[in-house]
Design a protein that fits this description.
Shape: elongated
Number of helices: 7
Helix content: under 10%
Strand content: 35-45%
Oligomer: single chain
Radius of gyration: 31 Å
Largest sheet: 25 strands, parallel
């Protein structure tokens, strides 16, 4: 056995001794190694120096394949690394199976790294009989708070208590690809992960759950709570205790995803930790998690606890109601991320979204909707003041999700917004991203990848992206079907080489992805990008529609709008005197495998520079159909003509009397599915003919005395018309209505069938005019009533598609 050292454990001699000392130590080291090889395969460790060594890691350094390290009780503040050795590290539990030995033999990660790391390519590593706590994941990746098993290794973890660890993935245990993990008799509880697997998060691995010596995995937090298997295989999951009773993965407590394996494992558990409540629950900053949560007076305190305690109800989804206040880890012990179950809602109860604030300075503050269906979240503010490279709100592999009335504002974060991945029927509306400063890397407010979504009433205003790298500062929509209306992107600073707004759908197999956009205002933004234009729309196959767009008074060294693919451009104003060319048609390089050529049909537009100013028409494969109703002249914006508003005010680009854009739009708007109001919330068609641009001219540009009278009755409209839930024109309806004035209570929209039977209740939160005011835009505008816009998914109250 190794010689004891009361000062510090030594296995390999130091190389900075004098020559004679080196020779002496070398002789001693050779004797030491021979002694281990001949005399014993067990190295003992204790903190009181009564055993061979006082450090587990030093024992690992001294051990050889096949050795056993026997650790006596004590709290070892270490981050133990197996160092690629096939060895057993065990407590005295191996000789005396008393659980008190597990509880008293502790590897404490001391908030430095993982408690235990099993490195690459071990043949057979064993960890047995320890408590693992206070780990934060490996130093390089922050995977595996309690145990991080790196790739291509074989590890058995038995009879361990793994609790109160934190990591980015796998709060209790995380594995790398091609690893084999056996779990036997462990208790994995009270761990937290930013991403998948608060308890166990496995990636590209094989895991075996001991069906005899059962594990317990419960009360862990993450966007998947207890067990997450990603491209991993396992036997059936047999547990003693799980957070809730399950028979198959539900995507929330246990999630299974494998690209090519259609059948997930079955689940059996003898006990459940939680008794879920089939009712609405309330959360208050002054609440208590020992309350029942059934009333505001008996509210819970932790949002993440409430979203896991609530029982999903497909027929009548239950709601976690958040009472006004500020919810953060520092102020009231909030746990992030806040995961949301299928068939539930998470809604603030304030009259304005800013009355409920989620977030504080040191958290990523992610709300996670993963592998879920029929979820609604909104009516609160989300703050994030860090530069972590994660999105504030995640929607992944989910369907029928509503995200509405969220204020993302006044933060310092790289990814302050929403990330939607491989999801369908996603409705995002009434959201505002304002006064945010981004730093390194991507800075994106709405990032959508391989999804189907509707965007309505979105404002991105007064944000600063300062680093010399990144993708976009407002929208990055990739490989998705998107229907977008009423979008304002204003007063943002975008540094090289990012793009302010980007829709990209250029893959050869993207036939089913559609794109349309109406009422887009991109105004007074500054880009220092010398390579890419401010706005890029790329679309392969069928034509896409861009209607009533205003891209005006932006500053940048290159072009403003790049189009690649098929687009119909109507009723739009592209006018940016302080930038390069207005429209750039993409010219593919000769080496592209699937070159994307364009067919651009433009009519009834004002475009600075006219047809001759459009770049890319020289390529014979590109086609530009230039209509006879396009014009090239000064649009006579309000800011130029009257000079009564500042350049940062979006009212600067309102049309004035005598503007060539007034009554110059398409005479027939049938089939264009245009919103019924302009970007300011006023009637879209005034004086019987639609105008060019996002604003419709009426006699109220700068005079309160001439303001139009508000409507005397409620005005309601919807598009498309007729609504065909299973038709080619979409699976949603945009329902709009205008009230004579702001209501005392939030309005409710009720939908009936032709028999007079009510099929759906839709609660309305803030109006579009409220959203504009909350972003600091047009706060003094006189409007013709309070305008509301709501996306209806064409489903009844039981989430069934209507006829």
């Amino acid at each position: 056995m190794p010689a004891k050292n009361t000062d510090r454990d030594v296995c390999v001699p130091s190389n900075n001794k004098a020559g004679a000392m080196k020779k002496l130590l070398l002789v001693l080291y050779i004797i030491f190694v021979v002694k281990i090889a001949i005399w014993a395969n067990t190295i003992t460790v204790s903190l009181d120096s009564s055993q061979d060594l006082t450090s587990i890691q030093t024992a690992v350094d001294c051990a050889a394949d096949g050795d056993t390290i026997l650790v006596h009780p004590g709290r070892y503040f270490e981050n133990v690394d197996f160092c690629g050795k096939s060895i057993t590290i065990t407590s005295n539990y191996i000789n005396n199976p008393d659980w008190s030995i597990v509880e008293s033999t502790i590897i404490d990660g001391n908030q430095q790294s993982s408690c235990v790391v099993a490195i690459d390519y071990e043949e057979n590593a064993v960890l047995n009989g320890f408590t693992l706590t206070n780990g934060i994941g490996s130093q390089s990746s922050r995977f595996g708070g309690g145990v991080f098993q790196k790739r291509a290794s074989t590890l058995t973890v038995s009879n361990c208590l793994i609790h109160n660890n934190n990591a980015i993935t796998g709060g209790g245990i995380s594995t790398g690809s091609l690893s084999n993990l056996t779990l036997s008799g462990n208790i994995i509880k009270n761990n937290n992960a930013l991403h998948e697997g608060g308890g166990v998060g496995l990636y590209g691995s094989t895991v075996y759950f001991d069906p005899v010596n059962l594990n317990s995995i419960y009360n862990n937090y993450g966007d998947v709570q207890d067990v997450y298997l990603y491209n991993s295989t396992s036997n059936d999951i047999a547990l003693d205790t799980l957070s809730v009773d399950l028979t198959t993965p539900d995507g929330f407590f246990v999630s299974y995803f494998y690209n090519s394996y259609p059948t997930p494992p079955t689940i059996t558990n003898q006990h459940s930790y939680l008794s879920r409540i089939d009712a609405d629950l309330y959360v208050s900053e002054l609440g208590d998690d020992s309350n029942d949560g059934l009333t505001p007076e008996t509210a819970l305190q932790t949002i993440a606890f409430a979203t896991r305690l609530i029982q999903p109800n497909e027929q009548n989804p239950n709601t976690v109601f958040i009472l006004p206040g500020t919810y953060s880890e520092e102020l009231n012990n909030q746990i992030f991320p806040i995961a949301v179950q299928s068939n539930t809602k998470l809604l603030g109860t304030g009259n304005e979204p800013t009355e409920v604030t989620i977030g504080d300075e040191w958290n990523l503050n992610t709300i996670a909707i993963r592998y879920a269906a029929n979820v609604e979240v909104g009516n609160f503010q989300m703050l994030r003041n860090d530069v972590e490279d994660e999105y504030t709100l995640l929607v992944s592999r989910s369907e029928n999700i509503v995200v509405s009335d969220i204020d993302f504002g006044e933060s310092h974060a790289n990814k302050p917004g929403i990330y939607v991945l491989r999801s369908s029927d996603i409705d995002i509306f009434n959201c505002c991203f304002h006064d945010i400063t981004g730093f390194n890397g991507e800075f994106i407010c709405v990032y959508m990848n391989d999804s189907i979504a509707n965007l309505n009433n979105i404002i991105v205003n007064n944000n600063r992206k300062t680093a010399n790298e990144g993708l976009a500062s407002a929208f990055h929509l990739s490989g998705s079907s998107v229907n977008a209306n009423n979008i304002i992107v204003s007063n943002n600073l975008q540094s090289f080489p990012g793009v302010l707004v980007q829709y990209g759908n250029s893959e050869p197999l993207a036939e089913n992805n559609d794109f349309s956009m109406s009422n887009l205002l991109v105004y007074n933004n500054t880009s220092t990008n010398a390579n890419n234009p401010l706005v890029i729309f790329t679309k392969r196959f069928n034509q896409s529609n861009l209607n009533n767009i205003s891209i005006a008074n932006n500053t940048g060294p290159t072009g403003i709008l790049r189009l690649a693919g098929g687009f119909n451009l109507r009723n739009s104003i592209i006018y940016n005197p302080d930038a390069g060319s207005e429209i750039n048609i993409w010219v593919p390089s000769s080496v592209e495998s699937y070159p994307l050529y364009s067919y651009i049909d433009a009519d009834y537009n004002l475009i600075r520079g006219g047809e001759s100013g459009v770049y890319g028409t020289y390529d014979s494969n590109n086609t530009l159909v230039w209509g006879s109703h396009n014009i090239d002249t000064d649009p006579l914006f309000r800011g130029d003509v009257h000079g009564d508003v500042g350049l940062e005010d979006i009212k600067w680009v309102q049309l004035t009397q005598g503007s060539p854009c007034v009554n110059a739009g398409t005479p027939d708007t049938l089939g264009m599915n245009l919103p019924t109001v302009d970007i300011a919330g006023n009637p879209r068609v005034w004086d019987n003919i639609i105008d060019m641009g996002a604003y419709e001219y009426n006699p109220t540009p700068n005079s309160d005395e001439t303001a139009l009278a508000p409507p005397a009755t409620i005005q309601v409209s919807h598009f498309p018309n007729p609504v065909t839930p299973n038709g080619s024109n979409g699976k949603v309806a945009f329902i709009e209505f205008t009230l004579p004035k702001k209501p005392i209570e939030k309005p409710m929209l009720e939908i009936y069938n032709i028999k007079g039977q009510k099929v759906r209740d839709l609660k309305i939160t803030q109006s579009f005019s409220q959203l504009v005011r909350s972003a600091g835009l047009s706060s003094k505008d006189k409007q013709t009533g309070e305008h509301y816009s709501k996306i209806w998914d064409c489903k009844d109250n039981n989430r069934k598609v209507v006829a």
